[in-house]
Design a protein that fits this description.
alpha/beta; 7 helices; binds guanosine-5'-monophosphate
């Protein structure tokens, strides 16, 4: 299992798409969230979009491997996304924020954890604003959270700086190929 984490706007999604193009055996875990879908996002593909009540019920039923509150919404990894794949030894990729990555580290220390870092805090700000997916108050909130997330960097075995996209893709592919290759 591969956990890809790092602040919002750092390019995790782009890197993971490129990674899966290069290593088609990888499967992406579709997270659950209480956030509203953005234009173009599809239920069951981008996320499993759940109501607050449904998310509460799934927590009570023990359906989550990890979950966290992030920027006013809740996000979580469903056991159902992982169980069969891990049983069949299909490599799975999780794209999650830092609190969730910590929970996975506790429960599944064998998971490979990769932190994607921006070249600088300023670069992250520019990207998060330029991405245009979030309203201004969300961008502010996400930037505040990013400061704390960046401090978590030393906890991670692998840190990849997403400066030049092609270099970051190569670095991520190298980490994953190395883990997947028989010892
Ligand atoms: P966004 O709203 O931009 O899609 O996601 C916000 C943050 O939540 C991102 O950092 C994303 O990686 C993270 N996230 C997405 N799915 C999960 C999940 O299942 N668990 C946790 N802990 N974080 C998630």
């Amino acid at each position: 299992m591969f956990v890809i984490t790092g602040p919002s706007g750092v390019g995790k999604g782009t890197l993971i798409r490129a990674l899966c193009d290069r290593i088609p055996a990888l499967q992406i875990s579709v997270s659950a969230t209480t956030r509203q879908p953005r234009p173009g996002e599809r239920d069951g593909v981008s996320y499993h979009f759940l109501s607050q009540a449904e998310f509460d019920r799934r927590i009570a039923d023990g359906d989550f491997v990890e979950w966290a509150e992030y920027s006013g919404n809740r996000y979580g990894t469903l056991r159902s996304e992982l169980d069969r794949r891990l049983r069949e030894r299909v490599p799975v990729v999780l794209e999650i924020e830092v609190q969730g990555a910590r929970q996975v580290r506790e429960k599944m220390p064998e998971a490979v954890q990769v932190f994607i870092a921006p070249p600088s805090a300023d670069a992250l700000r520019t990207r998060l604003i330029g991405r245009g997916t979030d309203p201004p108050e969300q961008v502010q909130r996400r930037l505040q959270t990013a400061t704390a997330e960046l401090e978590a960097q030393p906890e991670f075995t692998h840190v990849i700086v997403n400066d030049r996209l092609d270099d970051a893709i190569e670095a991520l592919v190298a980490v994953v190929e190395d883990e997947l290759s028989p010892a």
